[in-house]
Amino acid sequence: MAQETLDKQTEDLSSLLKKAALIAVALVMAVVLSVVAVRYSQASDPYIHQVLFLKGNGSRGEAIFKMNCAVCHGLEATGEVGPKLVGVSDHRTRVGLIKQVISGETPPMPQFQPEPQDMADLLIYLEQL
């Protein structure tokens, strides 16, 4: 009788462990799918997609930066009113950089949506800092 009880408990525990493993796999898959969906939706934004498709020119990007961004970020992007941007691409993705520039979500930075080619040029310059 004791052996039967032990066998039943072992079987129940095994069943619970299998269910827990399935739930863990489902949770991991849900997280992965949500990350993929967010990245896809960001990159599928027509403006962002167009910018990422274009080849940028760092020299033009520097000129755009100096005309539009240097007042707050400094001529050398070392920070003034706005934060230092040297090395910004080390902790921001290309999509993240574009969204930061165009969103205006971090005051006092204004919303700014340059033409796609200008944004591609600015993006290359920011990545070179």
Question: Topology of this protein?
Answer:
Elements (H helix, E strand, L loop, with lengths): L1 H43 L1 H8 L4 H11 L1 H4 L20 H10 L12 H13 L1
Helix pairs in contact: 2-6, 3-6
- The class by helix and strand makeup works out as mainly alpha
Oligomer: single chain
- Quick one: CATH superfamily of the largest domain? Cytochrome c-like domain
Calculate the terminal CA-CA distance, rounded to whole Å: 75 Å
How much strand content do the residues show? under 5%
What is the helix tally?
A: 6
CATH topology of the largest domain: Cytochrome Bc1 Complex, Chain D, domain 2
Mean pLDDT: 84
In short:
The protein is mostly helical and 129 residues long. 69% of the residues lie in helices and 0% in strands. The mean pLDDT is 84.
What features would you describe in this structure?
The chain has helices spanning about 1-45, 45-55, 60-70, 70-75, 95-105, 115-129. The chain is mainly α and about 130 residues long. It folds into 2 domains: about 1-45; about 45-129, Cytochrome Bc1 Complex, Chain D, domain 2. Helix 2 packs across helix 6 and helix 3 packs across helix 6. The longest helix is centred in the N-terminal third of the chain and has 43 residues, at about 1-45. The mean pLDDT is about 85.
